[in-house]
Amino acid sequence: MTELLEAVLRGLGTGSIYAMLALAFVIVYKSTGVINFAQPAMMLAGATIATYAGPAIGVVLFASLSFFLSVGIAALLTALIALVIERAAIRPMVGRPAFVVAIITIGIDIAVRVVAGGFIGLGARPVPNPWGLDGVDLAGVRVQQRHLVSMAVLTVVVLALLHFYRRTRYGLAMRAAAFDQEAALTQGVNVGNVFAVSWAMAGALAAVAGSLLAISAGVDRRIWVVALIALPAIILGGLDSLEGAVIGGLAVGVVQALVGSYQREVAPWLGDNFSVVAPYVLMLLVLLAKPYGIFGTPEVRRV
Amino acid sequence: MLRASNLEVVYDDVVLALRGVSLAVPDGGIVALLGSNGAGKTTLLRALTGLLDIHDGEITKGSVSLDDRPIHRWRPERVVDAGVRQVLEGRRVFVELSVEDNLKVGAHTARAAMRDNLERIYELFPVLADRRAKTAGYLSGGEQQMLAMGRALMSDPRFLLLDEPSLGLSPKLVEQVRDVIVEINRAGTGILLVEQNATMALSIAAHGYVMETGRIVLDKPAEALLRDDDVREFYLGLHPGEAGERRSFRDVKHYRRKKRWSA
Question: What stretches of chain A show up as alpha helix (H) in DSSP?
Fold first, then answer.
């Protein structure tokens, strides 16, 4: 029982990071109708900035505060980078098919990753933080502190996003812009600004997720692959749903942790490292039952 | 007064779509703009509301002015803010949003008055009030047209530019749309009505323009247009001197409709 609980909590911890990455994808998709394939690079860039910002600011008051400060700086700078990229490469594409923009984001991804890789170097760069792999005892169940931190940050992020989409006029404007940019323009929505805001938000989120991911093993050039696990998460949650992204991300994390803990005993014939594939298997199963994802909006078409 | 003077519009740096087009929509008036497919009607509307940019179009000569203030370099959202709103051809409602959310997007530039405007729109279009929580994409064509017009009214525009509101609607619905346009106009909104349905447009407009291949070829009060032989023949399907009788099909067949006006 303890073992199971520990696996689930571990899954929720990494799942929180996936959920944030998935949210970043969903934010851009909701406002532009494009899957932003540059997201992994933004995560890498954000985490890299955090590895530089951490030592630069040193220890302010106490260690966890300085960690969050460095994450904040990374989020701001990554949002700025995202804004510049959006202005230079995406804005000229207002009114063009989403497909074109998606391909451009692949190019951006490669370019940004190379630049970030140059700042990382060959080895891993640590993000200064007080937790590392330390655990804490919760009524007999051992949990790593970093997982608790990730869950707490995810909660704050989700609350902030819900507020943004429910209470501000930009929430609706973003969805409108995703459906029909020209029609949104005629409503007085500045579609360019919508693009910019969504890219900046997604960039900041990716930076936060990347920094949290780097708590355990630091940042090396390959961590961008983790952002791809957000893809099955958003697809099974529904591409345009915030709730779906969160639940999808957490589900992927938990499934991965459970498969990692039990698969070797239960189904040894599946071989090693099946947990890496498990999210995609989960995605396929969900899509068989719900083609638009669990919370996705079915396409509306009148015949 | 919304005015276009000597507009020349070029698409993709090469395609000349408008040549020296001038047009004026007075405050609180209804102006009809007629013309066949490809005449440049929609291009003219885009030029008026700043939408040329996303279609790779550019105003190369002339100007658009609102109360003598040039607005042709403005971004679309600024034009909307100034009170000029366009309802795109083909309705273009946000199909996956609810009816009410569609209207709320329409109020993007006028959030403060949103509550009052919502009520006003629901009064003007009772059918939308019944369906406010429904997904907009599942409304009928007529209801979607009402929604598109209601959405545009959510910011209390001074000028409403309607691009073929009767497109794809049954004659009965066309009548309904016409009545709504008159009602909107009575509340003080100036209207530029782009139509292929000339009978409908000229029945409510005070003034009319006819476009062909990128130019305005006729510019007359609506009544004069209704009496104009060419308009009667090309747009109303009537023939000169025959008091509304149709010519026999054999006569029509060999007649080349490529007739040009000298303007």
Answer: 2-32, 39-57, 63-85, 98-120, 145-167, 169-179, 181-186, 191-217, 224-228, 230-237, 242-266, 274-289
d(C-alpha B216, C-alpha B35), whole Å: 9
State how far residue B97 is from chain A, nearest Cα, in angstroms.
Answer: 8
Q: Which amino acid is at B204?
A: I
ipTM of the complex: 0.86
Q: Please, what is the end-to-end C-alpha distance for chain A in angstroms? A: 53
Phi/psi for B60 (5° steps) reads -95, -25
* Number of domains composing chain A: 1
Q: Are strands B2-11 and B84-87 parallel, antiparallel or unpaired?
A: unpaired
Q: With respect to residue A177, please indicate whether it lies within any of the assigned structural domains.
A: yes
Query: What gap in Å lies between CA B85 and CA B68, rounded to an integer?
Result: 18
pTM for the full predicted model: 0.80
Per the CB < 8 Å rule, is A189 touching B85?
no
What residues make up the domain containing A119? Answer: 2-289
A96 φ, ψ (degrees, to nearest 5): -90, 165
Residue with tokens 């073929």: B164
Is B201:B182 a contact under the CB 8 Å cutoff?
A: no
Chain B closest CA to A96's CA: distance in Å?
Answer: 8
Select the CATH number that applies to the domain covering B2-222 from these four: 3.40.50.2300, 3.50.50.60, 3.20.20.80, 3.40.50.300: 3.40.50.300
Amino acid B31 reads V
Cβ-defined contact of A186 to B80 (cutoff 8 Å)? yes
pLDDT digits (tens, 9 = 90+) for A244-281: 999 999 999 999 999 988 888 888 888 888 888 888 99
User: Which chain A residue has its CA at the smallest distance from B90's CA?
Assistant: A183
Kindly indicate the confidence band of residue A15, based on its pLDDT and cuts at 50, 70 and 90.
Answer: very high
Q: Which residue has the tokens 């007085």?
A: A188
Closest CA to A254 of A2, A47, A1, A17: A17
